[in-house]
């Protein structure tokens, strides 16, 4: 659920200040309507490790309600969501069909660009911008409201972010954030950020992303100069419960993010141009490229703790 690598941010800072992709008033992006962007899976998808599963077939629809959703979950919270810098828009993503569907154009009151995002059970995405502001964005139409979060608490201005259930199956959840300072959590009522730890044993000098699930797990997708690392974090100590370097490595650099759905981690990278979608399966430690070009650049991704934690049975 984070956006660009530190290298990309330094380039942006030198070229256009803090980023001028046009959020807030004077947004230069026109809304193309609620269209479906069908990201057809690669017919010859490049497998980076052995995988016995069959790649999903494309579908222009992105249905909600594929699995049993807890009653306290808002409509649409069983999907993944991504933010695109190409048209400053919010999209839903349905992993079984690899379909992206445009929700709407973001018009948050910031002169900078989205940096990272996560999704709460109440039907709102929490989106961090390059200037450190955090906004709540409706999953229905992408309308935006400021949270009043104060940037710079304990040195955290931009950060990867992810909600994780407080216990398996619990409707209570916590918003975690991470960056080069380590792991922290934000109280979504008081908006106070509290550090958890420095994520010992992990190289986060280039930043990190987070994603959680309804089973109480919290995962980090970490960029490094020549490779990516995935880890499951201990939410008390901030250290890794396990970590994996993706081999062969996914090309590092550019925009990136991660999400969880149905027992798998979905990774979004854009070393040059539009984003690529990968799937990492913790159960067998395989990494598969699913989509070579989604048609836009993803700078943030996330899902709620309402998404299925195991793969739903095929229909």
The CATH topology, please?
A: Neuraminidase
How far apart the termini lie comes to 29 Å
* Shape, per Cα inertia axes: globular
Question: In angstroms, what is the radius of gyration?
Answer: 18 Å
Mean pLDDT over the residues: 82
CATH architecture: 6 Propeller
Percentage beta strand: 35-45%
Unreliable segments (pLDDT under 50, ≥5 consecutive)? 3-40, 43-67
Let me know the largest β-sheet: 5 strands, antiparallel
Q: How do the helices and strands follow one another from N- to C-terminus?
A: HEEEEEEEEEEEEEEEEEEEEE
The neighbouring-strand order within the major sheet is 1-4-3-2-21
Helix content: under 10%
Q: Tell me the number of structural domains.
A: 1
Name the CATH class: Mainly Beta
What is the number of beta strands? 21
Tally of separate helices: 1
Based on the structure, what is the oligomeric state of the protein chains?
A: single chain
Structural class: mainly beta
